[in-house]
Amino acid sequence: KFILENVLNYPNPFTTRTTFWFDHNRPSEMLHVSVRIFTVSGRLVRTLRQTIFSENSRSSELLWDGVDEFGSRLGRGAYIYQLKVTAPDGKNAEQWQKLYIF
After folding, report:
1. How far is CA 14 from the centre of its chain?
2. DSSP states of 75-98 as a string?
3. d(CA 30, CA 52)
4. pLDDT tens, position by position, 70-83
5. Other beta carbons within 10 Å of 57
């Protein structure tokens, strides 16, 4: 089973950039990571995708600069994000968290 734990973004709250962190049980594998960021009303404002390789169970390679799909800086406030990670064998795990922009 694919397990995600300790999903967070740091710093949180942030003003200009934040990094998404998570622990997983699939070290030394290429993992496909997707982060979808939504307003609290449910409107999707940004999708980040990256393939990462972490030798251990902690990953912190995904950086976000706080802009939407069109390059505009998002306003201050609360947002919700879905972090989804997929392993080479197709198994995946996801978690939902909150982030705050100051």
Report:
1. 14
2. PSEEEEEEEEEE-TTS-EEEEEEE
3. 6
4. 999 999 999 999 99
5. 15
Where does the pLDDT of residue 86 fall: very low under 50, low under 70, confident under 90, or very high at 90 and above? Answer: very high
* E-state strands within the chain: 4-10, 18-24, 30-39, 44-53, 58-64, 77-86, 92-101
Averaged confidence pLDDT in the chain = 97
**Amino acid code (one letter) for 43:** R
Q: What is the Cα–Cα distance from 16 to 9, expressed in whole angstroms?
A: 13
The two three-digit tokens of residue 99, written as one number: 């982030």
**What is the token pair recorded at 93?**
């795990």
Please tell me whether residue 33 adopts helix, strand or coil conformation: strand
28 confidence band (pLDDT: 50, 70, 90) = very high
Instruction: Decide: pTM greater than 0.90.
Output: yes
50 is written with which tokens? 């990256």
67 C-beta neighbours (distance < 10 Å), count: 14
Question: How far is CA 53 from each of CA 9, 41, 50, 68, rounded to the nearest angstrom?
Answer: 18, 33, 10, 26
